[in-house]
Amino acid sequence: MITMAMTGHLLAQIEQIAIELVASIISEEKVMIQVPRYLRGRSSLSYRKITFNHRPSRHRFCLIVYLLSEIHRLHVFGGSCTVRGLYYRDTQMIRSQSYIDAAKLDVCHMLNTAPVQLGLLSASKGLIAGNVAFLMNNGDVLDCNEYSRALTLPTDFENVERIESSAEMVLIVEKESVFESLLSQQAFSTFGLRFILLTGKGYPDCSTRRIVHRLSVECQLPAYILVDADPFGIEIMLTYQRGSQAMSFSSHSLATPSLRWIGLHPSEMQSVSNAAASLTQFDNKKIVDLLARNNLSFAVRQELISLQHSQRKAEIESVIDFLSPYYIPTKINRNLFLT
């Protein structure tokens, strides 16, 4: 939740940037914004310079100033807005949502904070079902128990004042198709455990990662994840567990280090899946990129090496028929997970 102290700190940062820009204009110096570089989640003590006087970077400069002014307004008067809403406010100036997304990341680096703490939101794509209720700041209650279908996660998750659940665990699945399949297989009645089912529909957005973090920390629920046995599935698992590479400086509020990876494990492909496929050039490049990270656990590193050696991959769908009645319950009950 955004506190008064956080708001005051952000306002002071933005106002200091504005003062420095005005001083540069008055003194006829080069008008420039410096964006910190982050390497593996840490500031490298170097900066990327975005200069108004330099024509190729002028548009990026203007977008950053525009975002800083909007963030300042939001924190002074209250409220929040979506990045897409900002785009449609002046499409001619912004040109493309990809431009404002990139500028938003620059602003996060400059202010050393996550987008949700700026008041800039992205439409949530995550889905949730099971034994959980969200009590909102305005008094509304979003109770998944009252619905027979999946619910989309709130866009502004910081407006969730409290989470209530009598579940025993959280199960995250990589894909919406697997999420829907588990619901159709009546997984809530076959597992023998009360649980919350959640998907980020591939690479998770901040709202999805934030709810997993809060369920783990505030509700003290063990969280398990099921992804494809391929390098991109493993990267998705690591995004939930360690945070994204681009936003790793703010991963303390979005990552869930205790996340348990129950499968599919590359080392078990031969015994559980008969629908493996060959790795592509992109798969192999992703494996090399992942192995270059210095925060991988020994177990995850070994699974990546197993992928590299076998040159085979498998999707969750290849074991879909026995996911609910056997695979997932067995992995959880026998603690057959990796961290």
TrEMBL record:
<keyword id="KW-0238">DNA-binding</keyword>
<dbReference type="GO" id="GO:0005524">
    <property type="term" value="F:ATP binding"/>
</dbReference>
<dbReference type="InterPro" id="IPR036388">
    <property type="entry name" value="WH-like_DNA-bd_sf"/>
</dbReference>
<keyword id="KW-0479">Metal-binding</keyword>
<keyword id="KW-0539">Nucleus</keyword>
<dbReference type="GO" id="GO:0007131">
    <property type="term" value="P:reciprocal meiotic recombination"/>
</dbReference>
<comment type="similarity">
    <text>Belongs to the TOP6A family.</text>
</comment>
<protein>
    <recommendedName>
        <fullName>DNA topoisomerase (ATP-hydrolyzing)</fullName>
        <ecNumber>5.6.2.2</ecNumber>
    </recommendedName>
</protein>
<keyword id="KW-0413">Isomerase</keyword>
<dbReference type="GO" id="GO:0000228">
    <property type="term" value="C:nuclear chromosome"/>
</dbReference>
<dbReference type="GO" id="GO:0046872">
    <property type="term" value="F:metal ion binding"/>
</dbReference>
<dbReference type="InterPro" id="IPR013049">
    <property type="entry name" value="Spo11/TopoVI_A_N"/>
</dbReference>
<dbReference type="InterPro" id="IPR034136">
    <property type="entry name" value="TOPRIM_Topo6A/Spo11"/>
</dbReference>
<dbReference type="GO" id="GO:0003918">
    <property type="term" value="F:DNA topoisomerase type II (double strand cut, ATP-hydrolyzing) activity"/>
</dbReference>
<keyword id="KW-0460">Magnesium</keyword>
<dbReference type="GO" id="GO:0000706">
    <property type="term" value="P:meiotic DNA double-strand break processing"/>
</dbReference>
<keyword id="KW-0799">Topoisomerase</keyword>
<feature type="domain" description="Spo11/DNA topoisomerase VI subunit A N-terminal">
    <location>
        <begin position="59"/>
        <end position="119"/>
    </location>
</feature>
<dbReference type="InterPro" id="IPR013048">
    <property type="entry name" value="Meiotic_Spo11"/>
</dbReference>
<feature type="domain" description="Topoisomerase 6 subunit A/Spo11 TOPRIM">
    <location>
        <begin position="169"/>
        <end position="332"/>
    </location>
</feature>
<dbReference type="Pfam" id="PF21180">
    <property type="entry name" value="TOP6A-Spo11_Toprim"/>
</dbReference>
<dbReference type="GO" id="GO:0003677">
    <property type="term" value="F:DNA binding"/>
</dbReference>
<dbReference type="Pfam" id="PF04406">
    <property type="entry name" value="TP6A_N"/>
</dbReference>
<feature type="active site" description="O-(5'-phospho-DNA)-tyrosine intermediate">
    <location>
        <position position="88"/>
    </location>
</feature>
<dbReference type="GO" id="GO:0042138">
    <property type="term" value="P:meiotic DNA double-strand break formation"/>
</dbReference>
<dbReference type="InterPro" id="IPR036078">
    <property type="entry name" value="Spo11/TopoVI_A_sf"/>
</dbReference>
<dbReference type="InterPro" id="IPR002815">
    <property type="entry name" value="Spo11/TopoVI_A"/>
</dbReference>
